[in-house]
Amino acid sequence: MHSAQNPPHDRRPTASEAKRAYLAMVERITVSGVRDAAAEREELRRIPEELARWLADHRLLDPGGERLSPPERALRHIVAEHGRRLQETVEGLGRDAQALEDVLSVLTAPRADAREAVEIEYFTDRSRTRRRLEELDSSGMEEFLVMRNGFPGAQVLEASLTGDLEMLTDGVRMRMLTSQQAVRSHVAARYLNALIDAGVEVRVAPTVPLHMNILDRAIVVIGAGPGPRGEGGDVILHSTPVAQCFFKVFTHAWDLARPHGGHRPGRGRAGGELSAQEREVLALLATGAKDETIARRLACSDRTLRRLMNQIMEKLGASSRFEAGVAAAHLGLVS
Q: In the CATH scheme, what architecture does the domain 271-330 have?
């Protein structure tokens, strides 16, 4: 007889505990070789949440949580899922390879103009890279594009989130593209959801070719990866033509990616989500007030006003100020 005791409720079970609990449940609900459906449902109602999650992760529990799956069926599901993921990865790598070839063809194309000297900075300490990005942001950055094929640990992400939110408060527009593998981490998921709540657009692709930032389509920061002696670093390229090439790589991958499935703000929802300040901006726009007049009335900077306008258009599902005004009028937000 297998042990009838389930693992403790207050922690995730070990693999050995979960397997023993699974076999014990199968034994208890099987009478004379036939499974008792009522007994099975009763067993599953009593199991700890962490054990149910372990069983579901291993495909040993059906999606509805009312039936145990035999190991043979669980194995077929896992193999089928991996097959789909491998196919998506192969297709994604093919698209990324084509995008890189397109960019290389642009870089190597003959040009009539004189050669451009490109300023290059190289950092082996990522904390120094982050400080350098803060310096560049202080000079008046307006757009920040991010491509991530992985995320660091919780402590580094927490510090990064603080800096990212400060940038957004200053009116910087931010888009982030990351890979399916990267978002499986709970730490990364919390970080991305916090960015989405702050107004960042986040998309996920099967694969992401580079670890890269693009600042105002004029500066590129690329993770250089490990060197011959194991050292790593970041390269900062100060060149608008070079940045435009990498922007094409970003745009190509972005257009093929899907919105992140976290609690993403919906487009075109009712205006009840607009803050009092955002409603005031709409009301002033309806009077024909110009940006400088609105910023002076709100006692905010031009960049902050631009951020507010982007938030308003996102919430109203509008692609221009005119569309935002029409949507606001339909919703009765302005008279």
A: Orthogonal Bundle (1.10)
